[in-house]
Amino acid sequence: MLTSGRVRVMARQNDRPDLLVALRGSGDLVGELTADPTGVRTASVVAIDHCTAGRLPFPAFRRILAAHDRQEAFTDYMVSKLSQTVPFHVQLAQFSPTQRLARLLLEIVALADPGTADPSRVPLPQETIAHALHLSRSTVAKEIAALRVEGVLAPGPRLRVLDRRQLAILAVDHPL
Nucleus among the record's keywords (predicted)? Predict the structure, then answer.
C-alpha cells in the first residue's frame, strides 16, 4: 500500500530489458498478483522518488476485505489498474517519440504527492526514460531539448515541466 511517493512497475521479460507497464502513486496498491505465491515474480516495483508504503500479507488483506464486504470494490480497483497498463503498450506502437515522452512526463507529474517540494520535477534520468519508452537515449535527449526550446520544460540539468497545458497538447496531437 503506497502511502506516499511514486513508483514504476516493470514487467519481467526473458532475455530482454524489463518493460514499463505502469506508474503508480499515493493510495495505490502494488505487489505481485499470482495464483501461486511460490512462483516467479512477473514484475518489479521500482521507486521513482522517496516512498512510504505499508505491507500486508494477502491472507490478512483478504480477511479485511471480507470483514468489510469490499471484495467487489477490490476487484473493480484491480480491473481498473490492470486496464491502465494497456496504454503503455499502445503508445509504444502507435505514438511518436514526442507523444510518448509527453504522456510519460504528464503522468509522472500528475502522480506527485500534494506535499512534494517540486511536483513539476521529473525525478528520472534520461536513460531510464529512454528505456521505459523503448527509445534511444539520443532520441530522448533530442526531444527534451526541443521541449526546452518550446518552453514546455525548464532549462538545466533536471527535468521540470513548466507548461502542462502545452505538454498535454503534444501528448495528443503530434504527427509521426
Answer: no
